[in-house]
Amino acid sequence: xxxxxxxxxxxxxxxxxxxxxxxxxxxxxxxxxxxxxxxxxxxxxxxxxxxxxxxxxxxxxxxxxxxxxxxxxxxxxxxxxxxxxxxxxxxxxxxxxxxxxxxxxxxxxxxxxxxxxxxxxxxxxxxxxxxxxxxxxxxxxxxxxxxxxxxxxxxxxxxxxxxxxxxxxxxxxxxxxxxxxxxxxxxxxxxxxxxxxxxxxxxxxxxxxxxxxxxxxxxxxxxxxxxxx
Length: 229
Known about the structure:
The protein has 229 residues and is an all-alpha fold.
């Protein structure tokens, strides 16, 4: 019976990744091609980026709804952490991971990512709020952390799950690095991959320590995605 359970879990995870990648890339790639002048059609970029970003959570809700657990998954949006220490880890952790990744990139003869002009820095706070709402608990994290992480962790452990999910998570973002005008377009993809695995491990740790809440993930992910456009 264990192999049947494992086969079912593998099918569910495979379906999640297939739908999540297919939906997001299906929306993002036309914008990438248009932005690079490869097709004559010019779709509205911002709506496509936002809709694609919601693919992980919408896919997770669909899969959870098939076995009657969509309500339990949504409830993770309303859980608040009890210890202030988890907030500190959620807020300060991304900066540490990003600095280490940037240092490794420079050591490998890469260039330091360019900083935007000072006049555009006020947009950081606007982007931070938008990413925290859309790109965090309501966009990606209900899927990645709320649905995928507990399943992977139960079979591969925290470290193995961080490697698998971190690499897939980074690959899922690849079209955004090719799309002119996005925060990711200003960064080297290698730099993002380097930080993805340790960041996934820390996000999973925060999720587990907070009793299964996806709210801290907004604080964890927002600083990484809030570079002024």
